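Summary for the steering committee. One of the milestones for this cycle was to obtain a three-dimensional model of the protein with nicotinamide-adenine-dinucleotide bound, which we needed before selecting residues for the alanine scan. The sequence and ligand used are listed below.
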Amino acid sequence: MDTNRITVAYGDGIGPEIMKATLEILQAAGANLEYDVIEIGEKVYLAGNTAGISNENWHILEKNKIFLKAPITTPQGGGYQSLNVAIRKTLGLYSNVRPCISYAPYVRSNFPKMDLVIIRENEEDLYAGIEYQQTDDVLQCLKLVSVQGTEKIIRYAFEYAIANNRKHLTCMSKDNIMKMTDGLFHKTFDRIAKEYPSITTDHYIIDIGAAKLASDPERFDMIVTMNLYGDIISDIAADVAGSVGLGGSSNVGENFAMFEAIHGSAPDIAGKDIANPSGLLNGACMMLVQIGKADIAEKIQNALLKTLEDGVHTGDMYKDGVSKVKVGTQAFAQAVIERLGQLPVQFKPVHLNHNAKPIVIKSPIVPKTEKVLLGVDLFLDQDNKTAEELAAMLNSLSNTHLKLDRISNRGVVVYPNGHASTFCTNHWRCRFKQMGSGLTFENVLELQAQVMSLNLDIIKTENLYQINGNLAYSVSQGEK
Ligand code: NAD
């Protein structure tokens, strides 16, 4: 992505101030960029565009491919969509990269050696936001995980480790519970790890992984994880690093990339010239690396570190005894500009590979395999019936292809051999398995018609497949 023309959005709140400061530093460092400025965010939302961006501005984003974005304010309530999520998914920005670095002693942190990069899958998982209310009692959110999305993010993480001289990559998932979706993530990680023998690896279940990240973050070098977990742990990591105001992030896809600060629009301090521009500046440095200007990024990052260690601090960092001078946003930018070309003395200077190429990961082609229908789960909305009563009705059907195998409620088996103590909602999963072989979807439709004739309310049907010789559905909890 060698380019000099990028799209810029000044955003809301402190956005315009920190963007002005950032662009001045880029200019002074010799980034030599041209900008198309677009309006996104609060003004666009409040003018009635619930997406927060106009069609013309989508075209500019697509034309320039590289987007430097200041934070925006999302109005509370109403039907406003998350513009961040829309941009990531529309432009295929599958990889979210968040370095979480301690700048101690200049920024307070209990973990002065923390230097961690989190790579978060950015398009799938529960973040697809596909939700349904199925009964009065039960709502559902679909967790969609693809082979392509998983493989791309894991390969990206390994390639990032190589390109940035990182040594250890940790995968986090919850595959002890979600054996299929999270299981795919963990298995793909283990498979791809074999192609990168120079990177050591391990895997943590996300709950203990998050706990270790909060209590002992210096043990981690890089983490790759799924969308929702990554969302949560990257905030934990940024917070324990002490550098929420300093963190930048990139959202990278096959053809487009977006760079920003990790913090929001901070309306409480907007317009006062006191915001710290370092987060957006760090995001902009990630952009410079992406567009082949790693030398400029290195120059800026070293000047920023020198500014911090010289004790020139914005109010959020200012500490008596450590800081020397408290400055506003624009004066901080000038202090960085004055130090362009200098190296830090206390901090380790940043050395980037000046010939780094952007990491490009193509979607893998998933081979087509044999898919055989083995049965069906019919989900029913039924009040005032026990599992035994429901089973008696379903067992009374004279279907020659499908037979009731078990009933579960919220994933736990309640028939046969249920436990009286199990709390049941009105959301029943009735699993039918084929008798003999050669089951077709016509047979399923026939069963559905029979179930409806019993005045039972079918709210959802899931086919049970064998794919590539493996059972392609989970067994119920408590199933023997
Ligand atoms: P926030 O990150 O804007 O602010 C949290 C606290 O940190 C505030 O006290 C703020 O003053 C301070 N702060 C943040 N950035 C700072 C900086 N650069 N310098 C000094 N202090 C800084 O989070 P919030 O208040 O929860 O959110 C405000 C708005 O930002 C909301 O509308 C939210 O939706 C939006 N938001 C946008 C993005 C984005 O555009 N990427 C990300 C997060 C939040």
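Key point for the committee: Residues 14, 71-74, 84, 245, 260, 263-269, 275-276, 279, 316 surround nicotinamide-adenine-dinucleotide (CB under 6 Å).
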